[in-house]
Fold this sequence. Notes:
By secondary structure, the chain is mainly alpha-helical. The chain has one domain: Up-down Bundle (Four Helix Bundle (Hemerythrin (Met), subunit A)). It has helices at 20-40, 46-63, 69-96, 101-129, 134-160, 179-185, 191-218; strands at 18-19, 170-172, 175-176. A three-stranded mixed beta sheet has the order 1-3-2. Helix 4 runs antiparallel to helix 5.
Amino acid sequence: MVDIKTIDDIKPFQKPQDSIFAKLINRKFSRFITFYLVKYHKSITPPQITWFSFIISTIGCALFLHPNYWWRLVGIFFLQLGFTLDCCDGEVARLKNNGSKYGAWLDSVFDRIKEVLMLGAITANWYFYKQSEIWVIVVGMLAIIGMQIVAYLREAKKSSWPTTRTSELFISKNIYIGTVDVTIYLVWEIFALVVFLIVSIPMMIKQFLSAFRQSKRDL
């Protein structure tokens, strides 16, 4: 493992290209947590951090079920903390040079589960405390299905073209729009469900077009 003396020593082990919220917010906090972990918990592994991130995020999603607005706000804090920890597992893996395919798989699986829990909790809160209409359930389920199809298309493309995969929506050379963190940052009450339902359609189209362009390059 690389000898780390200061928090700034973590920066070279953060992803040079990252999604907008990770780059501008989460990575600035994750480097502090990563520094603490590698200095004082040397035996910790990236999958253990991934599990801890998932548990924290699940607590956040559970708080979305609370009828009180301020408890749901605490839930958003826990969800963001979970996402910051989700940045740490990769940083620790690069520092210790012990990344694994299992770790990458586990991280991706937990991202999908967190999305389902998050949108499901928002749907349940809306239905039980605000508007007990069947269309609320329909909107929530379609939002969940849409986001999961987008995730499946993205992962399927990654398995088919593992060496050429990159984000299609770059804002600058090192910053792009990432699905997971943008999804988490857009969470704000019931409006998130409608947003995710609407944007999942062009996102699906984008993944199909991207895979088509990749297939053309293979010819």
